[in-house]
Request: fold
Amino acid sequence: MAPLASLLRGSWHVPRDEGVPLRDAATGEEVARFSAEGTDFAAALEYGRRAGGPALRAMTFHQRAALLKSLATYLREHREQLYEPSLRTGATPADARFDVDGGIGVLFSYASRGRRELPDDTVLTEGPAEPLGKGGHFAAQHVMTPMRGVAVQINAFNFPVWGPLEKLAPALLAGMPSLIKPAAPSAYVTVRLVELIAGSGLLPDGAVQLFCGDARGLLDHLTEQDLVAFTGSAATARALRAHPVVAARAARFTAEADSLNCSILGPDAGPGGAEFGLFVDQLVTEMTVKAGQKCTAIRRALVPAPLLGAVAEAVAARLAAVTVGHPAHPDTRMGPLVSLAQRDEVRRALKELTAAGTVVYGDPDRVEVAGADPGTGAFLSPVLLRAADPGRPEPHEVEAFGPVSTLMPYGTADDAIELAARGRGSLTGSVVTGDPAFARAVVLGLAPWHGRLLVLDAASAAESTGHGSPLPSLVHGGPGRAGGGEELGGLRGVLRHMHRTAVQGSPATLAAVTGRWVTGAPRATGGPHPFRKHLEDLRPGDTVAAGPRRVTLEDIERFAALTGDTFYAHMDEEAARANPFFDGRVAHGYLVLSLAAGLFVDPEPGPVLANYGLENLRFRTPVYPGDELTVTLTAEHVDPRAGAPYGEVRWDAEVTNQHGAVVAAYDVLTMVARRPGVAPEGGAGETG
Reply:
């Protein structure tokens, strides 16, 4: 059997050595071989920079989002090819779905977010332009552009599909190529994943590379434009972060490391109550899903001292009902660990933990197994411990990366917070309570030490995604021992693959650089009304100015009668004058908006299909009866939607009075049609 191949420099390479065997976690049978060879890392990284990077950067965010959606759809259609090898790692069918479907879900999530939240452009502006001169002739704009290197993604063994995909999705959307380095024990699953990705023909050459082998020397060839995203042990994260090339070239480095995550039961949650049951269920789930081999699993379960015995009894009873066995056996609820070496590592950690506590449930050396031989597979019983003294260092420093958790008592909320903080930084934590005051105290105390916190109660339980489930929209990472980095987090994950630059210049120059009209840039007021222009004909800076329109007391009173908004500032002269902000009765803010729309709208049917919202609305100056309003509406950004017969146009609206004072400023969002007969860019069905 040849060692697992690597996808490097556009082709598959099979190592020349025999490699070391990778074995089925349940049977011990050889599944694959993993090479001990290295490769020409300099050439592989340069290929990604030279081939993959330019091809991705040439695409707009929307085109990359469409690519992600197509890739996610393709993988979903072929996911059975990932389920089968996943079972060889010890994953049960449910575990495999958690990994495979979860990873594909990340692709779909970033595809959707890219289409909804990013422009159909290759540059991203961050925040509004900043005026830097009194005359309006000098300004600055922060822009985000893709880094010109490769995202080196070093993954852990426990999620061979989700792990690579949760790193790949934001990198691709940002326009940055990836080099994936899987962990050896489950690398054959990642290889099959990359085979599917390459076989889809969807990605440009060099956008994704895969290396299976000895990674020593990989970081030696990083440049200032490369990025390292690591998932694994805290010790390895520290070593990689201290690599001399990473330090010397300030290569961007983020780590998501295993941590001693905690779950805290509130003192209100007694036996028989909803929250008590939720705590027990959650703890058992986190101990047994993926055989506890999750960086987010609960390692420390903090319980009010009077409830410790009841919790121990309830959890032990639930664990006794968990069948450990071959992943394919119909009765199995927890499979083996990924390898015999990993089982031995957990047993070594258990020896340290049992020296500081007692075993409530499970035998680290014996386990009954369904459908397999416990002597050849990497099986281990779930082990629940009880800390003799929660102040001892072992449960706060030693992690058994398997189906192991330690119960420990606490007295007050402050005690629980102090115990949790002894973990020195965690990816996630949870508080199970029906008491909002307790939840607030504990969340605010734990937040500086955690990347994500779940507050679980009877109201949220039905929809809760669980303690140990990272979500694409939320940050995944944590301070201190947890690595000090972040992954995912919606667009935050994309921005980590981009560089922020402050660009200074005239408003006209900034508009040219960013493709967005900036206050102070030239306006185009000639020609047809902008609402008569189709999407292809609109340009940033296209403007309509209309007015003046006198506001009367009758307007204010009729608007109040029509809407029912009879707030005193609009209807009572004496009361309005007593208000420190007004000199008498004022027009409703929404009356001002309505009058402005009446001024700038071209009423006949045309390319403008719909107004679907306002953003950044501010009322800056009161409008009094007798004031005359003028509105200036300027196309700020034209954003086509690939595959759709329309696009989004953002308009800058500014309403002024007869003195030139701005009374209202806001952005108007519209959908505008393409010209009839013009084929939309992108494939059909890509409008979501």
About this structure: The longest strand covers residues 628-640.
